[in-house]
Amino acid sequence: MALLRSLFAFSFALALPMTSLAETSTAETFGQLPETWSARISPNGENLALGCSPQGVKAVCIFKLDSDARPKLIAPPTGAQIDRLYWASDDFLLYQVSLFETIEFSSGLADVRVYRLLSYDMKTGKTAFLMRNARSVFDTTRVDSILLNKPNKIQMAFTFRMGDATRANSRLSDEGSLQYIIYDVNLKTGKARVKDRYEKSVDNAIHDAQGKRYAEILRNPKKKTFSVKSLLTGKTIFKRDKTELPPFYVDGLGAGKESLIVFFDDDERYGLHTLSLIDGAITPYEAAGVEISDASTVDDNFTGEVVGYRYTDDLPRRVYTNEIFAKVASDAKNALGSDSIILTSWTQDHRIFTVQSIKLGRPDQYYLYDIAEPSISPIGGEAPWLDEAVLGTVKPINYPARDGLNIPAYLTFPVGKTEADAPFPMLVLPHGGPEARDSATFDWLAQAFAAEGYLVMQPNFRGSSGYGADFRNAGYGQFGGKMVNDVVDSARWAVSEGLAHPRYCTLGWSYGGYSALMTALKEKTKVGCVVSINGVTAPRELLADADKYSLTRDYWEQYMGDTYASDRAHWNFISPRARADEYSIPVLIIQGEEDTTVAPEQATSFNRALPNNIGKKLIMIPADDHGLVQSGSRQLVLSEAIAFLAEHHPARD
Questions:
Q1: Degrees (nearest 5) of the Cα angle 412, 389, 13?
Q2: What is the pTM of this model?
Q3: Peptide bond before residue 459 is cis, with ω within 30 degrees of 0
Q4: Strand segments (E) across 162-315
Q5: Percent of the chain with pLDDT strictly greater than 70
Q6: How far apart are the C-alpha atoms of 422 and 186, rounded to whole Å?
Q7: Residue 470: count of CB within 10 angstroms of its CB
Q8: How far, CA to CA in Å, does 435 sit from each of 80, 397, 474?
Q9: CA 100 to CA 104: how far, in whole Å?
Q10: Which residue, among 513, 545, 643, 649, has the nearest Cα to 25 in the 3D structure?
Q11: How far apart, in whole angstroms, are the C-alpha atoms of residue 145 and residue 134?
Q12: How do the residues of the chain divide into helix, strand and coil, expressed in percent and rounded to 5?
């Protein structure tokens, strides 16, 4: 295979003009979007699609291998951002976009973020919006089957809530139950044809790569029932009554397509299990003979078989049970000296693979692995302008919470510094979610502040994912309680260990912004300032914005506790906005104007409620959403936060 000569020339030509690192600010250096954020090889191995970021927005660059032809560039539609990409066939690349829209529902106008799937025709260079007529559906990106035997079509499916005209534009009246519609979608035109329609609480159906259906998932949120019907036998193989949430989620088809691989999450079981489509037998999934919390499967789209499983400890991991995949991953890890290897895509004949190389605290690198030659060639990097000299060392640690629970966390040391140079000015950075987690991968936000001289603490407080059901469940009902106490305790531990100065600042995004604000209320004599980015300031409004029977509402109820309905004192206690008059330190509020996850009103109303004499500041970022995914937005976040910290909590003399 010829080296990808045009790849590098094209990618660097598209990049923003770069001066030397010594001439750029920290915000400019770390606020850029990844140069490469995804890599996907076409089924026949002739074309390579890379997620790229020319001009500060995510795009797609398509390279024809063994050719010097100029690569093709797919820019996002006006007002949209590209989130992911993959091949449906040799002739069609699919890419998902999200965009901010104001839609008229029966209840009135509403600002929403919608998710759409587009196809790119490799032969004509034309793009088609798939399911274009489904304007009332927020998310039209669900692909049930790539229809391997029909290269110009895919199968898509959507679940509607019956009777809820504000969300599904449905004319049916059985509130709380669901209907499930399957479409055949033409990739050339984007037009969809109804293939099957179910109106008896079918929530999901499981298909193989040819579109054959093997099981149906039935759920009635109002009646709180959940069941699975096997289409191999025509019988119900699993049933559960009186359940607020589904007891499991389907990962895919098991070996021989006679079982489902499911992730249980209820009082009886937790983790991956096999559910027989023949007799309903449930057995733990014991791939490689190990038990790992929060694992999910890796599936081969071409065969429908499970080829491994994924999980995260300090880094994202893949364990491949398929012999070919396991050898490719092992060879790549040895050749590249990686801490972890992810095979992001492969050809239908399993000859060429795209490889993501991960190293502790360092930007990811992408490679092309050809078994036939064999060879491994670089195809892109997350942040090739960064080198070891400008990155802080990331160290996994554990500390005890005040009630004795062991809490994992990550420290990023100031650039060029070690523990021997401590103590440092500290910034505590709790993650969002809250059912999420930080890891020891490259974190542009943490590394930017490490470059400014701060020790960055990232605690995975109770309620975080990735550490098993007991640890996650320990956060239930503790939205503003023990989950925030864990963040406070992370700072106390760092100070007691001699790593940090006693006075510190907090910064967070989304729930992390909420946690940063609450930490300041719990530790008033130690926290010197707060930066909240798209942060929650009025938790009860998250519930008010959620549908009555939605999984989103159930999720928030679990974390906030069951006292929300009647206990006003509880709500006031966990609400930064209700306690705004208690703040006596500087507060920086940064908010995306098109955020549909945390309403911008949460930022503006909190800012109005804060005392005027504390040094408060509100920054509204136009034309960007909850993730602030444009380079300009990220650089603005960093420049404002760095200047704010330099004034109120300087790390440099």
A1: 110
A2: 0.90
A3: no
A4: 178-186, 192-198, 202-207, 213-220, 225-230, 236-241, 248-253, 259-265, 270-276, 282-284, 296-299, 306-312
A5: 88
A6: 61
A7: 11
A8: 27, 20, 11
A9: 13
A10: 643
A11: 19
A12: 20, 35, 40
**Alpha carbons 128 and 187: distance in angstroms, whole number:** 7
The residue-averaged pLDDT of 78-101 equals 92
The answer to whether the CB of 411 falls within 8 A of the CB of 499 is yes
Phi, psi of 286 (to 5 degrees): -120, 55
**Chain centroid, CA 568 distance in Å:** 33
Cα–Cα distances in Å, from 511 out to 260, 431, 480, 518? 34, 7, 10, 10
Whether residue 319 is predicted with pLDDT greater than 80 in this model: the reply is yes
Q: Which residues, 6+ apart, have CB-to-CB distance to 440 below 8 Å?
A: 314, 315, 360, 361, 394, 396, 410
- Crossing angle for the helix pair 444-451 and 631-648, nearest 10 degrees? 40
Work out the widest C-alpha separation in the chain, in whole angstroms. Answer: 73
Supply 34's token pair. Answer: 């990844």
The string of pLDDT tens digits covering residues 504-521 is 999 999 999 999 999 999
Contact (Cβ atoms closer than 8 angstroms) between residue 76 and residue 59: yes
As a whole number of Å, the end-to-end CA separation of the chain is: 54
Q: Band of the pLDDT at 16, cuts 50, 70, 90? A: very low
Domains of the chain, CATH where assigned: 395-648 (3.40.50.1820)
For residue 474, the one-letter residue type is A
pLDDT attached to residue 333: 97
What count of other Cβ atoms lies within 10 Å of the Cβ of residue 270?
A: 18
Residue bearing tokens 């999934």: 285
353 and 41 Cβ atoms separated by less than 8 Å: yes
pLDDT of residue 169: 35
Residues in the chain: 653
Which is more confidently placed, 51 or 568? Answer: 51
Q: Which residue type, as a one-letter code, is found at position 308?
A: G
- Res 334: pLDDT: 96
Rounded to an integer, the average pLDDT of 171-183 is 61
Instruction: Tell whether the model's pLDDT for residue 383 goes beyond 70.
Output: yes
CB 456 within 8 A of CB 449: yes
CB 179 within 8 A of CB 199: yes
Asked whether 88 and 154 are in contact (CB, 8 A), the reply is yes
CA dist list (Å): 52 to 61, 92, 475, 637: 6, 18, 37, 21
User: Regarding predicted confidence, which is higher, 112 or 20?
Assistant: 112
C-alpha distances out from residue 553 to 75, 115, 536, Å = 35, 20, 15
